[in-house]
Design a protein that fits this description.
With 352 residues, the chain is of the alpha/beta class. The chain contains 17 helices and 6 strands. Helix 10 packs across helix 17. The longest helix has 19 residues. The radius of gyration is 23 Å and the shape is globular.
């Protein structure tokens, strides 16, 4: 077979494996052959079905059907039941909880906001899971439990039945950017506007993947900002491939204006990090806002959002993978030397 025919054959095979999203340029892998096997439990709906006049029976039925999440929910997430508590007092605690106006309001709000969850979010979640299994064939999808957490948890992973992971999703943490979260706990930084603007359905699957990738990738390999940049850049790169239709602003959890700013100022950010000698800085106080959620990046213009270090890390990983296209996602996360990746990427910031 001639070299030309071989090249054409390889090209056809690659086109069959991937279809590229025209807007993002990121390939959607062919996952038609991948089957999913997990349980989706709408715990907040099951909770509403409990008869408040005899809540113990309902809770015991929940425990019989979904023991791990029920134990976790009532003993740790919304701790109502202590070990050895009498049946009557359990009933009283549950009745108080289920009839509490704050809880009924929360249940009503979650029901309204997430009315189309099964139709709109579940298909996105299924496709993301299939993509994750495509890039990480040994990964096993967790059972998924939606619930209300009284504004405490967006996601958590726990040991579910049969040794399988369970994934909890707090739907009350995705009520939309206009929901008055700041009134829940005034003055608490976790409910600042720059954080809660991503507490919506557009970001739900992305944030779910964040948690799952933390389980797969583990912590950064070192304490330097470069280690965090490359580690977080890998995560962003992988999530972009798990959600090939998602805009970059969702991947970064930026506004469209912030996304435009960082894309137009790569060279300036790069020069700033070199000038301030931040790449090899290991003092978390000095580097925190460049790699963790923050309203800004200290020392940069006021238009600069937080996590600019992660954005730069993402660009480095893109450059590295462009030069090393044979590298699989599994191989990428196994490369623990951040300096090696940066050097071999030969990344050069865009000039405008």
């Amino acid at each position: 077979m001639s070299q030309l025919k071989i090249i054409l054959l390889i090209s056809v095979c690659l086109m069959m494996m991937y279809s590229c999203n025209s807007e993002t340029g990121v390939p959607q892998p062919d996952t038609d052959h991948i089957n999913l096997d997990y349980q989706l439990v709408r715990s907040e709906q099951l909770l509403e079905e409990i008869n408040v006049e005899d809540p113990v029976i309902g809770s015991e039925q929940l425990k019989a059907e979904h023991m791990e999440i029920t134990e976790l929910y009532f003993k740790r997430l919304v701790p109502l039941i202590d070990r050895g508590e009498e049946r009557d007092s359990i009933g009283a605690s549950l009745k108080d909880f289920l009839t509490d106006p704050r809880i009924t309001y929360l249940q009503d709000t979650v029901r309204m906001v997430h009315e189309e969850f099964d139709k709109e979010i579940v298909p996105q979640l299924n496709q993301a899971f299939k993509n994750l299994k495509f890039y990480f064939p040994q990964w096993t999808e967790p059972n998924v439990y939606t619930l209300i957490s009284e504004y405490a948890y967006q996601h958590f992973v726990f040991e579910d039945k049969d040794g399988r992971d369970g994934l909890g999703i707090g739907l009350d943490m995705y009520l939309g950017r206009d929901f008055p979260y700041s009134r829940v706990a005034p003055g608490v930084a976790a409910f600042s506007a720059y954080i809660t603007r991503s507490f919506d359905q557009d970001h739900l699957v992305k944030k779910t993947l964040d948690v799952l990738l933390e389980e797969i990738m583990g912590p950064p390999p070192g304490a330097r900002m470069l280690d965090h940049m490359i580690h977080n850049g890998k995560k962003l790169y992988i999530i972009q491939h798990l959600l090939p239709s998602a805009p970059d602003s969702v991947i970064m959890e930026y506004t469209s204006e912030q996304m435009e700013w960082v894309s137009q100022n790569e060279e300036e950010m790069w020069a700033f990090f070199f000038k301030e000698e931040l790449f090899y800085e290991s003092n978390m106080i000095a580097i925190n806002k460049y790699i963790n959620t923050s309203p800004n990046s200290p020392g940069m213009p006021e238009e600069a959002p937080g996590r600019t270090g992660n954005y730069m890390g993402w660009q480095i990983i893109k450059a590295y993978m462009k030069r090393h296209p044979e590298t699989s996602m599994e191989e990428l996360i196994m490369i623990r030397d951040a300096q090696k990746i940066m050097d071999q990427s030969r990344y050069k910031p865009r000039r405008n």
